[in-house]
Amino acid sequence: MHSASFLLGGLTIVLIDLLLAGDNALIIAMAVRLLPRRERRIASLLGAAGAVVMRVALTFAAAQLLNVEFLKLGGGLFVLWIAVKVLLDASEPPKAAAAPDQILKAIWYVMFADLTMSVDNILAIAGASHGSIELIIFGLAVSIPFVVFSSNLLAELMNRYPVLIFLGAGILGKVAGDMMLTDPFVARRLMVSRTLNYAVDAALAVSLVATGLILCRKKPPAK
After folding, report:
1. Do 81 and 21 contact (CB within 8 A), yes or no?
2. Residue 219 and residue 222: Cα distance in Å, rounded?
3. CB-based contact 115:54 (threshold 8 Å)
4. Which DSSP string do the residues of 164-197 spell out, in sequence order?
5. Helix (H, G, I), strand (E, B) or coil at 49
6. Nearest to 167 by CA among 76, 77, 86
7. Which residue from 78, 93, 109 is spatially nearest to 35, judged by alpha carbons?
8. pLDDT by residue for the chain (223 residues), tens digit each?
9. Can you give the three-state secondary structure of 54-113, one letter per residue?
10. Angle 135-124-71 (CA atoms, 0-180°, nearest 5)?
11. At what angle do helices 37-59 and 22-32 cross, to 10 degrees?
12. Separation of alpha carbons 150 and 214, rounded Å
């Protein structure tokens, strides 16, 4: 019975993580897109694994995470920064070779962005695990291959179809808007309504796509 309960709890956590992992896979794909294929897989795997380690450590303090002011605000700004950075590189092909510092930088981007985007995920997993560290580690670890595979697939598709970069940037604009507006400090000051939430999400998404198009037009053609 104990084994059955453990398996059921583990599968529940895996399902929660997979359902909420789409944004995480997207941010990983955009962060590692310009790395060569082998280094891209290494960076996404190590970044996702590092983020899982941090999530396990923070899951036991999950109830307090939603009350930490500026955490989501800073995370949302960071997501916007990554989106702009990717748009700046939108016309560049993947590199044939990557310097070690580029790989480490990509791993850091993945870990930090994944963590700041996963507060709601952490809370859901904390509830499903009922405080079992074994369940948390099992559920999150099993989900790593899915996130890494989907992020690498997205990166490949972005390299083949650059228009997806702009679509991804628009989605990240919405994600960043949701994060910033649900930060305790912002929510308390602005009394965020659903209409304001939709307006900010749409404005950020459209602004990022427009910024990407402008940057690409201004960029000198490759020689």
Report:
1. no
2. 9
3. yes
4. HHHHHHHHHHHHHHHHHHTSHHHHHHH---HHHH
5. helix
6. 86
7. 93
8. 466 676 777 677 767 666 666 677 787 888 888 788 888 888 888 887 887 777 777 766 665 665 678 877 887 888 888 888 778 766 565 555 555 677 787 787 778 777 666 666 666 666 666 667 777 777 667 667 777 778 888 888 888 888 888 888 888 888 888 888 988 889 888 888 889 999 999 999 999 888 888 877 766 555 4
9. HHHHHHCCHHHHCCCCCHHHHHHHHHHHHHHHHHHCCCCCCCCCCCHHHHHHHHHHHHHH
10. 115
11. 140
12. 29
User: What is the pTM assigned to this prediction?
Assistant: 0.70
Structure-block tokens of residue 109:
């981007």
Going from the C-alpha of 10 to that of each of 7, 63, 138, the distances in angstroms are 5, 20, 6
Tokens 């790989």: give the residue. 103
- Residue type for position 179: M
Extract the tokens encoding 12: 């529940």
147: which residues sit within 8 A by CB, 6+ positions away? 21, 24, 25, 28, 44, 48
User: What residues have CB less than 8 Å from 41, skipping those under 6 apart?
Assistant: 148, 152
- Ordered by start, the domain boundaries in the chain are 2-218
